[in-house]
Design a protein that fits this description.
The complex is a heterodimer of chains A (518) and B (632). Chain A has 21 helices and 2 strands. Chain A is mainly α. Chain A has a domain of 235 residues. In chain A, β1 and β2 form a beta hairpin. With 632 residues, chain B is mainly alpha-helical. The N and C termini of chain B lie far apart (93 Å). Helix content of chain B is 75%, strand content 3%. The chains are: A mainly alpha (518), B mainly alpha (632). The interface between A and B is large, with 58 and 48 residues.
Chain lengths: 518, 632
């Protein structure tokens, strides 16, 4: 199991805590030197990204095993240990996280003037939390990181957000927190049962994955985990925190929120809902797929009529994340790999869209589509970038959105044609709402006010170029990214294999065990 | 050939990248050179491929790299040259080259000159990819990419609201078609386990697949073709697409992109031939579109819109041919149509150029002597479109009608013949309104009129020659070069349908004579109404006021869509947003928050701070517990 042992230092720990170290450094040494904050934050995040890329290069894609593992005693009495490791799935998401962190910092270079120290520290701690979530191999550690990223995000929305920032921040916090409380109960239940039935007292994820829990406990714990993650994704109908949070958050917050935080939900589903309770996952397929398709169409329909650009992109996330859960629970190679690739692609494209809206907002101080018009004339370069991200987002072949979506649809099609047909409607609507927005903002008669707008500067272009590269790379040569997924997804599906014929009856099992005792 | 196929699309791609990156600051008004050279290169290579593939039994296939590789879903980035793709390559790169050269004069001095050539090059790349693809997914890539270029180029004058709206409309309507196309591709994969043309057709030929599945696949694919090739009821985007610059209309919306649907159906001939009933749908929709669009063409005032409806109508003819299994003839008409319709558009562009941007035929007239070169070339195109012997359109259209007749689809044949009459009528209405009679020009434009530069006239002459002589490529019966050339591609499909080579019979000659007479009648009627008795059109229009209004308004299809689909989508979504998303879902969340608040307030009252209250509570509680424990 000691793969990646040719790396002679605790790479994942460094990766996880480097941002925090940077934050501490700023706090201790750089107080009162505002110009140094963002530079330090940027340098820290760039080094973190570099390390993540280095790990990706060292990664062995042939095996589903967790690599670069680290293990240390933590709270031995309670079976809690400090355990890190990554497989191909988490590594891709860590790459996405570290990339978007760099760009979020670069993108908010000049837009944060107030309490900049606190802002950049929050961003860095957030990065630690996110990387930690994807790297944790101990359930308790996972939970800690899960909660850690909640706090800086709460502040980012609540302190640097728009007009209704407090409402949005509280809503975001309460929704997520309600979910995580349920998750905590499930975590404790699972660990407790394992101990009671002769297992060690341990929070080790790999050990718990092999346990096989009794029906009643599995059903309830699955439901609790699932609800927690579904809120995070967010799935219909627990999605209404998202438009508010996205809209009110500052640009960097929206980018990270859409780019990474939502993926923690689907990642959790893969690791825990499916990893711990494969049978229940199989039994819950139908309702989940139905909710996913609803999210795809419903999110797209809501996007169609949003007057606020950021809200439009936010609802489009509901639609696109619906694709992710659709592919995931189709439980075949195309669906699952497409789903994970779509997570990365959505992070890139939606992150980019929020970034663009932020750049426009910096200049015009409005997010209302109706206030824009003819912006392509004063800002041709911005319009060109924007169009590329819009096209990627509506699933144009050759860009990243298409690859994930098409694989998901192929996967869903094999499960049941009707899901692919309905989800394809979301693609038609996707073209409608995105191009309509683009037409109303970039094209048509130029609004007099905007004729003097300055086009993107070098820093802004630098922020967008990596996203363009990613969108095209995934679109044209997805093999680079898919190669990380083959082994772990194969493994996941082979674990699911015995249960795939089991369908339905999750709710019945929950009810029965409620009255019959666990 | 394996060594250079990939260069055919990559040359224009390179031209696109370089022009886009350096066009604005560096290349500027020299932006045409690189794209023209790239197109010339592609054309040269296409010629080479044509020579090499002639008579070959097997197609040449090259795989560049694995595009998708997920489990059993394996899709290469692969290219395939056979006789069909070779013909398409020549049309795309050849007509493309001519139009690229023409654009140098036409677009000269435009502020977005480099942008125009950049997107045209990207289009050429995408279209060549579409044609070269060796599997359905790569076809889908090219298919969407040409749609994207079309979107950009229709909206080229993006500051005009109509242009921006037209671009968006084109993309979205095509997306509706692609909804079917995408599902069709998935169904192909699920059915055959591959998307590779050769493997799919081999399995289909072997009869390994249920007929119902094939019906599903072909109907879904045809839905995509209806969007791209503007067949009723998805035709609405093409006339609006005329907002783009005229060379764009000529290349994308007449000669090449819109024929992609025809190409795709012809490419999938084996599937369509094996799916009973679907061919009738294809032929039926094609025939209906042919006459429907032709009728609308009668009443249009904008010279480009006449041509746009004519394109829709002519594409209908191609589907009519496909519908009776006349694959090669459909491709033949595609080729001749590319010649003469590109010519007509470029000629119309020359007229518009001469008049400083005027497109309304009510404000033209009498231009025959003033721009003679444009006049003569345009008449050659009009004769070809009308199907007058021996111009190109005569041969191909007549082949189609003949094939329909031989197949026993007499109704389709009759409708096609009437549509041919209308075609000749509206085409020459356009010629007469533009070039004959008294000048109706505005005062300003009157002084502006000038013949176009050589860079525009030479392409016109080249296309005029092609439109005049191109028909001899596809003489009917055993004489047809193009039919013979394409035989290796379509033989399996013909075999399934039981079609054989035919010899010309007396009836074929009769049919030819009939269709020429009908076309001549159309021209004569146009001459009578628009040259001889110029008062007639108004009178007829007044007599038939209601009918005229319906036709002039294009049968209100756009209005119907706006009132139904668009209305439902926008108003329905708005309703759901406010009444459900905000009121119910968010309302429930707020309700829950409110509930806790109320409970909290209630709970606070319990905390009175008086010891006797607490003591009372303790005793009551104790009493309850004891009672429960004792009496259980």
């Amino acid at each position: 199991m000691s793969l990646g042992s040719d790396i002679s230092f605790p790479a994942l720990s460094v990766l996880t805590f480097l941002p925090t170290a940077g934050a501490l450094f700023m706090l201790v040494f750089l107080r009162g030197r505002p110009r140094a904050y963002k530079t330090t934050a940027l340098v820290t995040s760039v080094i973190t990204l570099g390390l993540a890329i280095y790990l990706a290069a060292k990664f062995n894609t042939r095996t589903p095993a967790f690599q670069f593992q680290e293990h240390a005693e933590w709270i031995g009495k309670l079976g809690i240990s400090y355990r890190l490791g990554v497989d191909g799935i988490s590594l891709l998401l860590i790459l996405l996280t570290t990339l978007l962190s760099v760009l979020a910092i670069l993108g908010s270079w000049n837009s944060i003037k107030d309490r900049a120290l606190a802002f950049f520290i929050s961003l860095l701690i957030l990065e630690t939390g996110m990387v930690g979530v994807f790297a944790a191999m101990d359930l308790f550690l996972f939970y800690v990181f899960w909660e850690v990223q909640l706090i800086p995000m709460y502040f980012i929305i609540g302190l640097w957000g728009g007009a209704r920032r407090v409402y949005a921040a509280v809503k975001f916090f309460l929704y997520t927190f309600a979910g995580s409380v349920l998750m905590l109960v499930a975590i404790l239940a699972v660990v407790w049962w394992n101990r009671k039935n002769g297992g060690d007292l341990t929070f080790d994820i790999l050990t718990l994955q092999r346990v096989g829990f009794p029906t009643g406990l599995a059903a309830w714990s699955f439901a609790a985990f699932f609800l927690a993650f579904a809120i995070k994704v967010p799935m219909f109908p627990v999605h209404t925190w998202l438009p508010d949070a996205h809209t009110e958050a500052p640009t960097a917050g929206s980018v990270i929120l859409a780019g990474v935080l939502l993926k923690m939900g689907t990642y959790g589903m893969i690791r825990f809902c499916i990893g711990f309770f494969p049978e229940m996952a199989a039994r819950a397929v139908l309702p989940i797929l139905i909710l996913s398709v609803i999210a795809v169409v419903y999110g797209a329909a809501m996007s169609l009529v949003q007057p606020d650009m950021k809200r439009l992109v936010a609802y489009s996330s509901v639609s696109h994340m619906g694709f992710v859960t659709l592919g995931l629970f189709a439980f075949n190679q195309q669906g699952v790999e497409g789903s994970i690739l779509q997570m990365v692609s959505h992070g890139v494209l939606t992150g980019a869209l929020f970034m663009m809206v932020g750049f426009f907002y910096d200049r015009t101080h409005t997010r209302m589509i109706a206030d824009y018009g003819g912006v392509a004339k004063p800002m041709p370069v911005a319009a060109a970038f924007f169009s590329l991200f819009v096209l990627g987002s509506l699933g144009l072949p050759g860009l990243s959105g298409f690859v994930g979506e098409f694989l998901i649809l192929v996967g869903a099609f094999q499960y049941a044609k009707v899901f692919a047909v309905l989800a394809s409607l979301g693609i038609v609507l996707g073209a409608a709402y995105l191009l309509w927005m683009y037409q109303r903002t970039m094209f048509q008669q130029a609004n007099e006010k905007w004729l003097s707008l300055k086009d993107l500067n070098a820093r802004e272009i630098l922020t967008l170029v990596p996203l363009v590269v990613m969108a095209v790379w995934i679109g044209v040569y997805p093999h680079t990214f898919l190669s990380f997924l083959h082994a772990p997804v194969d493994n996941l599906l082979s674990q699911m294999q015995p249960y795939l014929h089991e369908q339905g009856g999750l709710l019945a099992r929950m009810v029965a065990s409620f009255f019959g005792g666990f | 050939m394996e060594g250079y196929i990939w260069l055919i699309p990559v040359l224009p791609l390179a031209a696109f990248v370089i022009t886009l990156l350096f066009g604005k600051w560096w290349i500027k008004e020299h932006a045409h050179w690189l794209p023209i050279l790239a197109m010339a290169g592609s054309f040269g290579l296409s010629l080479a491929a044509f020579v090499q593939i002639r008579g070959a039994e097997e197609p040449v296939v090259v795989e560049l790299w694995r595009w998708f590789s997920v489990g059993s879903f394996q899709v290469p980035l692969g290219m395939q040259v056979d006789q069909l793709s070779s013909v398409m390559l020549l049309v795309v790169s050849g007509v493309g080259l001519v139009i690229f050269i023409y654009s140098k004069g036409y677009m000269h001095g435009d502020t977005g000159y480099y942008r125009f050539y950049a997107y045209m090059s990207l289009f050429a790349f995408s279209m060549l990819m579409l044609v070269l693809a060796n599997n359905y997914l790569l076809l889908y890539f090219g298919w969407e990419a040409v749609g994207l270029c079309s979107y950009y180029l229709i909206g080229y004058y993006y500051h005009k609201p109509e242009a921006a709206a037209a671009g968006k409309k084109a993309f979205i309507v095509n997306r509706v078609g692609d909804f079917g196309f995408g599902l069709g591709v998935m169904l192909v994969f699920v059915t055959f386990g591959t998307l590779d043309y050769l493997k799919v057709f081999e399995l289909a030929e072997a009869g390994a697949v249920a007929e119902t599945t094939l019906i599903g696949i072909t109907l879904l694919l045809f839905m995509g073709a209806m969007g791209k090739s503007a067949q009723f009821p998805l035709h609405v985007w093409l006339p609006d697409a005329m907002e783009g610059p005229t060379p764009v209309s000529a290349l994308i919306h007449a000669a090449t992109m819109v024929t992609a649907g025809v190409y795709m159906v012809a490419r999938s001939a084996v599937l369509f031939a094996s799916a009973p009933g679907v061919l009738l749908v294809v032929g039926g929709i094609g025939t209906f579109t042919a006459i429907f669009a032709a009728v609308i063409g009668i009443c249009q005032k904008d010279i480009k819109r006449v041509l746009a409806y004519s394109t829709v109508s002519q594409l209908g003819y191609m589907f009519m041919a496909l519908g009776v299994g006349a694959w090669a003839i459909a491709i033949f008409h595609l080729v001749t149509h590319a010649f003469f319709k590109a010519l007509l558009f470029l000629g119309a562009g020359s007229v518009i150029h001469a008049l400083g941007g005027e497109q309304n035929m009510d404000k033209m007239g009498g231009l025959r002597k003033r721009i003679p070169a444009t006049y003569y070339t345009l008449v050659a195109g009009a004769l070809a479109l009308s199907g007058i012997f021996p111009f190109a359109g005569f041969w191909s259209k007549d082949d189609i009608l003949g094939a329909v007749w031989r197949d026993g689809k007499y109704l389709l044949w009759a409708v096609g013949l009437v549509a041919a009459f209308i075609t000749a009528f509206y085409t020459f209405r356009m010629i007469f309104l533009t070039f004959f009679g008294k000048s109706r020009l505005d005062e300003d434009t009157e002084h502006h009129v000038h013949e176009s530069p050589w860079s525009m006239l030479v392409p016109l002459i080249v296309l005029a020659v092609a439109s005049t002589l191109g028909g001899f490529l596809g003489l009917p019966g055993k004489l047809g070069l193009i039919q013979h050339f394409l035989e290796p591609v379509f033989a399996p499909a013909d075999h399934i349908l039981g079609l054989h080579e035919y010899s010309l019979a007396a009836s074929d000659y009769v049919l030819m004579v009939v269709s020429v007479i009908v076309a001549m009648l159309g021209i004569v009627l146009a001459w009578y109404m628009y040259v001889r008795r110029v008062d007639l059109p108004l009178k007829v229009g007044a007599r038939l006021q209601p009918a005229y209004r319906v036709v002039y308004n294009k049968f209100y299809v756009d209005e119907f869509y706006a009132a139904t689909f668009v209305r439902v989508a926008v108003d329905g979504s708005t309703w759901v947003w406010h009444r459900f998303d905000e009121a119910v879902i968010d309302g429930a969340a707020h309700g829950l928050a409110r509930l806790w608040q109320v409970l909290g307030h209630a709970g606070r009252r319990l905390q009175t701070g008086k010891v006797q209250h607490y003591l009372l509570g303790i005793f009551v509680g104790l009493f309850v517990i004891v009672t429960v424990v004792v009496f259980r």
